[in-house]
Amino acid sequence: MDESRAKVLRMQMERTVKNLEKNNMMAFYVEKKEDVPAKVAELLKEGETISCGGTVTLAECGVLDLMRSGSYNFLDREIYPLGSPEIRELYGKTFLADTYLTSSNAVTEEGELYNVDGSGNRVAAIAYGPKSVIVVAGCNKVVKNLDEAILRVKSISAPANAVRLGRDTYCAHKGECVSIGEGKGTVMCAGCSSDSRICAQYLVCGHQMLKNRIKVILVGEELGY
Fold this sequence. Notes:
Strand content: 15-25%
Largest sheet: 6 strands, parallel
CATH class: Alpha Beta
Distance between the termini: 20 Å
Low-confidence stretches: none
CATH architecture: 3-Layer(aba) Sandwich
CATH superfamily: NagB/RpiA/CoA transferase-like
Helix content: 25-40%
């Protein structure tokens, strides 16, 4: 990355960090993905119960390896098949976890988190339950406002995740939500009617009642979808 682009990125990240803090979220910026596990470790206590949502980001930056290091009581969703009674039970235990780790589909420069789920286990845990939530997001997920966040999910996050999960949806085949072609790209809940649709539960995190419950680590590299 050239110096001028790096400067613009730092300014954008600093602005976003400042606004997340205004919204009662603890926020940090690290330049490289290799710096993320150490920052996450600073926010965890050895032996505490932790869990996470389905996320490519945590695997890409080494946080998933940290979670599986043996230093924590990790409720690992990947050892059970989706839809099984065991994973349903694990989701219930997640709400009593000390810390929940995840990424975010988008982070606005105005200091908001925007997330869209299918079953809702991830957005539910972000909103309520675990004592602490740690969000790791690459710079590719930072957008100006909620309209851009909504469009980002419809044009990038949802299509990529639908392909990853093998879903038979319009976006998996066409690379974008059907609502974009219909001129409803920033209408939050607009989309297909497929039984395989992964966009069902929507969460916007604005100003928080519990100060610093949510901690956001922004990374100066692209991570996840």
